[in-house]
Amino acid sequence: MSSLQELHQLGQSTWLNYLRHSYIRSGELAEHVKMGIQGVTVNAQVYRRAIIGSTDYDAAIRKAVAEGKPARLIHETLMVDDIQRAADALLPVFEATNYYDGFVSYEMDPALLVDATSAIAGARHFSHLIDRHNVMVEIPATEAGIQAIRRLIADGFSVNATHLFSVTGYEQVAAAYIEGLAEYAESHSVWRIMPTAVASFSLKPIDAAIDPWLEKHGHPEWRGKTAIALAKILYSRFQQIFSGPEWDRLAAKGARALRPKWTRITPSEFEYGSLHYVNELIGPDTVVTFPQTVLNEFLQQGRAAETVTTGVEESEGLLEQLEASGLPLSTYLSRIQEEYYLNTDRWFESLVAAVIRKRDELDTHWRGMTTRLGALQPEVDEGLRSLCQQKIICRVWDRDYTVWKPEPTEITNRLDWLRVMDAMAEKAGRLTAFTNEIISEGYTHALLLGMGGSSLAPELYEKTFGRPSRPANLPFPYLDLIVIDTTDADAIRAAEAAVDLKKTLFIVSTKSGGTVETLSAFKYFYNQLSDEVGSEAAGRHFIGITDPGSKINEIGRQYGFRDVFINNPNIGGRYSALSYFGLVPAALVGTNITELLERASCSASNATVCHCDDIADNHAALVGTTMGKAALVGRDKITFIISAALASFGDWVEQLIAESTGKEGKGILPVAHEPHAPVETYGADRLFVHLRLEGDTGDDEFVSALASAGHPVITLRLKDLYDIGGQFLLWEMATAIAGYFLQINPFDQPNVEAAKVKAREIVADYAKKGSLPAGDFAPLNPTTLKQFLDQAKPGDYVSIHAYVQSTPETDVALQSLRQAIHLRTGLATTAGYGPRFLHSTGQLHKGDRGNGLFIQFVSDAAEDLPIPDEAGSATSSMSFNVLKKAQALGDAAALREVKRRVISFEVGSNAIGAIKELAAKL
Which run of H or of E encompasses 742? Predict the structure, then answer.
């Protein structure tokens, strides 16, 4: 572990790239100052997200609107107040460092930066409003900006020169800065504070732009090195420029050198590590601007040693090699500067739009979340107090594993979902380009081969944003996605019949690379495709999504996959909806990835609120606390009522909650797609959640009746479909918080392997004997089922495990049976298709307190299909029907081993008829 003071001793100043009202008011800024933060930067992106995602600025916006301030200028009022408060908090640092640090650096509206005259006027205007010495105005290092920098320094303003991506750019700013200092020293015979400046050199955008070129042109060994090489050479020039007799004369009058300030230091590629840039650029007279996530990482794993002065010759050599290889580096750097300048303008426009949106919400009293918790309210209030007093929310964002367990195992390597949004936003361009390439080549369908976390989010994206969500009479220029998360032969054959294999992209999606269902489907479809297009061309129809080092990387090389997307391994499957596992298929079906991720980032902004005054505004904290506290008092069945357009969210959140909380004899049962029943039939073990799409009033009356009957109800309102991005983050955080209250690790899955182990044993036995065991099946009749259900007690639940083909007709039959069971027993019901549910709710079924009753249906395929022993091989030792039945037998055995109540029925090839008959006669 390292401290910021160690960096200070090496001459490096430590700033934070974060500011918002609640961060100041709660005392978090003051705590960070005590820790060693010596400055902060303000940016429009953080403000926009805080305005949209929280109540931080509601009162100030109401006041500004009442005063008649135009919406375009309201953000100015918000920023000025925060800058003043932050500057006051940093004033002791400013004075203790003799005016070298302790600054608040702020952005101006880019509309004011089109020419030097406007920039200077804007800076003077803001300076008058802020009325603090320890502030820096940010001016981009464009031609007009450099002119403004010289003039502002000469007038006594401190400046942060931004949008620097080259050594040449730094040299130009330095020249203007020195000229301005000389003029200031000449014209101000008496002054109190000499102006100073920093030069913000952006790192991540450089490598993010250059690395793909290096990969494409056969130099992957240079990836991630260009930005550091440029920074080290820039620092060398800094030392040269700010030395010698001329500079010494100016320094004698109090002038300070133009310190390089390293910014945008979160690597674009996870494999580089969070501290990739930090550890390589430590040295005297530099500033490092930490995002909060990287700051936490440095405090836990950083190393404090002077590095910026080392390896300069190697850096020069690398740039020479880059030039010799044909890389047009200067062209790339100019393009990056232009793109980021335009992005700044877009962010300010979106900030103004956010103010207008919030103003309208305040006018109409719109709220994204409401609760009617009844008798549960005192428990939840106590839980929220515990969260803020123990600083649980802050500790989660700090990646503190002790929130859940005393050891870091299966926690610290599962928390990168907290910062995946901005990392994946950098990949939106790649995903868009890939989608366009696939469509341009005539592909019409995608078959995704995956299970659990690899399949549920893609299915959600298809149903929510793909063709099913679009008007039937409009063109659809994207792929139709079919998810294969089954070993049912009839389902696989139906999927194959629904597509033209020659126009189909196959997505092999598995985190571990060893998922039997996924690999079996890959081998089958590879052979089928090879028969259509030949083995040489077949591989181009496949892509992989997997973790580093998994078997899919090798398979991709062996069979010539078109591409393999390597995901961040520190994200668990059920938390992967906003990673490559979710976003590659999302892009292919036409989802706006940038918008989806931004909604999630706004939700994350809300989810960081952790101080006691405002913690109830943290939706994730409130939902997670309610889930956890409700479960502890017996309301452990969280029942979702979801607008039809969002219905697939129920399947995704079911896995998240079940697999995360069902362990150590505890659990929260997610109940999705349950048919509505008379209000009086629901027991006192329910917590209801209403996900309501704006304009959908269909369930309002039912939900109101539930609340009136005394059931606790949470209503979450989504303005449009893209708000589902925010719901991903909200429920991931809420589930983690519920785990805190249940005192479990929400990121492991200790019982998931149980059924897989049993199934493997049965498959091995099948390989020896050529037949499956008989299994423990009950007579298929209503009497047998009634006798089984008579075991039920209050607080139990009934779960249907359907090892049958998933079709709309099967869905209807299962819903009828669920309703009949509920009306007979009053219990919560769930239903899942096997073996799909083994990768989600299967963990809860074996790890909870044992209050489930499990009804298993096992069908025979109407027409079985062989599983090739290897892709490209004609030999087969087992069929899909055998594998499915082995999985069903293994699951039943695993349930019985942990003393669960199980009944199994064989339904032959008429599963729908058998299930319907049971429902009708129950």
Answer: helix 724-742
